């Protein structure tokens, strides 16, 4: 599930559809480093990680100036630049988007648009069928702490 990250109403709609905790932020997807400026992230800090992107790697940045509906009081934001040409092309046109699994909070991830339509029906604006996602692994999530990269969640990308 995705929505325009800079549209507060759209982000809140996804929170509601998922029955997601209002204190649990989404990962934001970008298609170029410059988009981080719109998210309240220090570009000089972000450029240190450019060598890792695009990839299945989400980086948690300090983001005290990001919109509250994105960081939800955490003063940080997880961001990923995906290595998927069709997706980055879409993000080039729309700007940053939030990303989350297509399921209710705590439920099993939905791996096809057919099953997603059964669960969410007309509550979602549209569905994009990208095939079966059953073998899709989550992204690796890292955070910079005291100058070192700390792995928060090991995923597809091994560091």
* Coarse morphology: globular
Tell me the name of the CATH class.
Answer: Alpha Beta
Side by side, the strands of the main sheet go: 1-5-2-4-3-6-7
What number of domains? Answer: 1
Count of alpha/pi helices: 5
The share of residues in extended strands comes to: 15-25%
What name does the CATH topology carry?
DHBP synthase
CATH level 4 superfamily: DHBP synthase
List low-confidence stretches: none
Distance between the termini: 27 Å
Q: Please name the CATH architecture.
A: Alpha-Beta Complex
SSE pattern, N- to C-terminal = EHEHEHEHEHEE
Can you summarize the main beta sheet?
7 strands, mixed
Helix content: 10-25%
- The overall pLDDT, averaged over residues, is 88
Number of strands: 7
Query: Taking Cα atoms only, what radius of gyration do you get, to the nearest Å?
Result: 15 Å
Structural class of the secondary elements? alpha/beta
């Amino acid at each position: 599930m995705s929505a325009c990250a800079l549209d507060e109403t759209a982000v809140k709609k996804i929170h509601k559809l998922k029955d997601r905790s209002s204190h649990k932020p989404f990962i934001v997807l970008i298609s170029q480093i410059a988009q981080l400026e719109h998210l309240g992230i220090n570009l000089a800090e972000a450029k240190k990680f450019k060598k890792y992107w695009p990839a299945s790697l989400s980086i948690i940045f300090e983001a005290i100036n990001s919109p509250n509906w994105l960081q939800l009081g955490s003063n940080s934001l997880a961001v990923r630049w995906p290595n998927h040409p069709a997706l980055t092309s879409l993000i080039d046109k729309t700007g940053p988007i939030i990303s989350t699994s297509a399921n209710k909070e705590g439920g099993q991830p939905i791996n096809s648009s057919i099953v997603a339509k059964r669960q969410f029906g007309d509550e979602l604006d549209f569905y994009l069928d990208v095939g079966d996602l059953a073998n899709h692994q989550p992204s690796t999530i890292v955070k910079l702490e005291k100058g070192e990269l700390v792995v928060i969640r090991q995923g597809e990308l091994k560091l």
